[in-house]
Amino acid sequence: MSLGPSVFLLALLADGAPAQAPSPPVATSEEQTVETQPPVPEEPITYALGALSVPDFLAPGEPFKLVDLRYGFSDTFSTTQAFAARVRVKSWGFLGAEVEGERKGVTLTGPRLDLAASGENGAYDLLARYRAPWLIVSTQARKRAPAGGGGWLLDPALSVRLSPDLELIGGAQGDTSRPDDRFFRSASLGFFWQRGTRFEAGGEYVHEYVSTDGRTENTRKSGTLSLVGQVRALELGGEAFFEDTAGRFPRQETGGSVQARLPLGARLLVEGGARARWEVGLNNRSREYRGAVTWFGRRFTLPRTGEAAERTLGLARRATEMGGNERRVFGDDDRRAQRERLSLLARRDELREDMAALYRAQVAERAVPLLGAEVLDGSDALTGVHSRKARLFVGVPWPPAWPWRASESAVPFLRFDLERGRETSGLGFRAITWGGSLTASLNREMDLVFRYRHIDPTALDLIRGIGKRRTIELSYVYASGR
Amino acid sequence: MERRRFIRLAGAVPVGLAGFLGPGCARDGSLAPGEGAPSPSPSPSPDVGIVVPKVNGGINLQPLRRLDARDTDPTIIPDLVALQLGAVYELGFDGLRVTAPFSDRANFLAAIPYVRAARALGIDAIVVLADFAGLSLARALFDDRRRPAVLRLYETVFGVPPLPVRPGLGGLGKGGIGRIAFQILNEPAHFLGVPPEVYVRELLTPCFVALKLDAPDIIVVAAAEVGNVDGPPRIRAMLEAGLEYVSDRVAYHIYSRAVIPLLAPHIKSLVWVTESGAAGTGLHLGWVRDTFPEIFNEIPDASRIFYYDLFDGERGVYRLLDIQPDGPGFRAVVESNDLHAFLVDKVLAKAAGQALIPFETLIPDIRAYFPTAADLLAYDEAFQA
């Protein structure tokens, strides 16, 4: 039996909704605050640092309130330190500053306006984004360092919301250094469509002029279509692209990827995927396969199923009705960023309970991975590199328990990851990479991570005079309201 | 008569040259000056015949110094050099391509007589700057501190023009000798794991700049990539990374007809197909007779093709000749009979009945081109640097 039917059969055999809480109907804006009852955990949730209550997402800074604090330390041949902090300034906005090595940056997030600036050794990156009720206008300007030729790359973009589910997206790029005597470098047009929580599609057409070091210019037209869908218990995602390059060496390339995630029972998740790229008329240019299996300490919920997904849908629709212009987002960090934006709107009080309910649903559906294994295998015909990676992890929940005895009240606490990679290039030159990390999740908002990697040089590293190396990293993250 | 003579010379003849270590031939292959080293022979009278017409393109050969590749004795056996070079000359090749591996002292030195004698015969020589194994040379060529010494070694040892063995050789170098070309590494992605763009930017470009400053007469040939369908995308990536601006010749390898239409037909300089051949003795003639013209047709910028190869250790695959021990010496046995006859016929047709000057008349003692003490010193200094 081929892989495709096998996966579908497994999907059907699996619990029809093995990992999802009963999906509440999406409430209308009037009903929602009254009728939606947040899931009540059966037992109080306690983290290693103690219990954590639902944050008040609308609480203003007085005048400041710390919302992000990050510190990172990385040592390979030299030591690099990174520090970032972000505060809420009353209810006006969020102000952030970050330093990483030589790079320094500041960010400002307001109810409608985002601004960011960073710079490093004469190179600068500026961003401005304005979010109106039915459109988002943004411009990024990147100045190359003088050593890199100078000049500015300008990337204006526009997103027009045609309905709560559909956006049209356009963009362009210009280069003031005018490679090949041309300022205009690319234009793109695309769409992004979300249907409920279970289906999402995006597409983009790009027309661009690409300068080569061979002093020629290629005209490249490319189209990409991506889909994510939840088919019963099975989450399927995929992308397909086609590139037509005209110029001195015309060619057509195509490829795509497919990923699947399937819970088998309440606590076991099986994942698989493949990615490939071909040149039309030639053999495979590159390919990658991935497979993973994860055992969770409690019921696992895929991000597009369950109550949190429904709450996300409701919050995004309500925010858009109020002029917030928000997509549905399914990751913890994206949801947090969305809550922060919404907490600055003039009518934020109307969203208070929706945001809290989403947070509670997220907490209720938290993933507590305890055991896992992953294998990746890839090769690239252009570079002749073949790589293989294997990863294993063991997690310890809080309160501490054996993997088979963890309960629904468990939260992530410790996680130990091991990784071994092998890269083969040239005539059998092998480079082995070993790595391990220990993550301590002190509570939902606070992580400590220690990471170590031992890296053998590849053939190219040896040619470049780079030998064996080891990397030690230490990081601390505090993210309020995550 | 002439045809029989060719078969004798390049075919199954016991080599008449010294099949032994002659006087003055040191154990490390050097022929120290003042120890009986013969000097390049004066040319015979031009009246005895004509130099073999160079009508058969180029050929790849190994820097053979011992018949057994596992033999660690660094001594160069003159017979083996003479046997291979004699075949190259008498089969009418206009160029040879040989690897001079930097990290392998014995084989580096063994490449010297092939290059010098070939050039003295008016035959172009491509020296491939590549190691048979390991990354030492690639590392040295990447390293800004080591690169000058390594390139200077190659310039000193291979770049100095020899005296022509006689006038009227028809070579394209000064005085009718063969030109010298350096090919910077061989199939870098396949052998070394160096991606195409990295090869152009980090290896070829600094070598090209250094060689053009020091020795502008040396032709810099870019590395080719594998001769199967994986090769053309890599070549294209190299060209888009600026390959033509940092080389005098772009190189292709072609081992499959499917590759020909995938390679860029027009470039900004000339293409040298530095390896092309067919696996299987029975396919050799068809490949040279039919596919070589197809290559020239489909790739108008290709100006020459180097057949792969004259001799190697694998029976029945690519080699034109086998070399076998024969008493105290060696003999060449034609393995690819049809191709050999095809090449001989082309030479004879071009000679139009004129007598051909045999190899041993032009180079009576190949040891004249052997490495000298200065070569050894230059090598050791560069390697230690």
Architecture overview:
The complex is a heterodimer of chains A (482) and B (385). With 482 residues, chain A is mainly beta. Chain A has one domain (3-479): Porin, CATH 2.40.160. In chain A, 13% of the residues lie in helices and 53% in strands. Chain A contains six helices and 24 strands. In chain A, the strands form two sheets. Chain A has a 22-stranded antiparallel barrel. In chain A, strands 1-2 form a two-stranded antiparallel sheet. In chain A, β15 (234-246) and β16 form a beta hairpin. Chain B has 385 residues and is an alpha/beta fold. Chain B has a single domain (2-12, 35-384), classed as Aldolase class I (TIM Barrel), CATH 3.20.20.70. Chain B has helices spanning 2-12, 78-90, 105-120, 136-142, 147-159, 188-192, 196-214, 231-240, 284-298, 337-351, 359-362, 373-384; strands at residues 58-60, 95-99, 124-129, 180-184, 219-221, 249-254, 270-276, 302-307, 321-326, 329-334. Chain B has an eight-stranded parallel β-sheet, covered by helices on one side. Chain B has a two-stranded antiparallel sheet with strand order 9-10. In chain B, β7, α9 and β8 (302-307) form a beta-alpha-beta unit. In chain B, α1 packs antiparallel against α2, α5 (147-159) packs antiparallel against α12 (373-384) and α7 crosses α8 (231-240). Chain B is globular.
> What's the rounded overall pLDDT mean of chain B?
89
Order of helices and strands of chain B: HEHEHEHHEHHEHEEHEEEHHH
The end-to-end span of chain A amounts to: 43 Å
The parts of chain A where pLDDT drops under 50 for at least 5 residues are 1-42
Order of helices and strands of chain A: HHEEEEEEEEEEEEEEEEEEHHHEEEEEHE
Helix content of chain B: 25-40%
What's the arrangement of strands in the largest beta sheet of chain B?
Answer: 5-4-3-2-1-8-7-6
What is the highest CATH level, the class of chain B? Alpha Beta
Distance between the termini of chain B: 54 Å
Overall morphology of chain A: globular
Give the tally of β-strands of chain A: 24
* Assigned CATH architecture of chain A: Beta Barrel
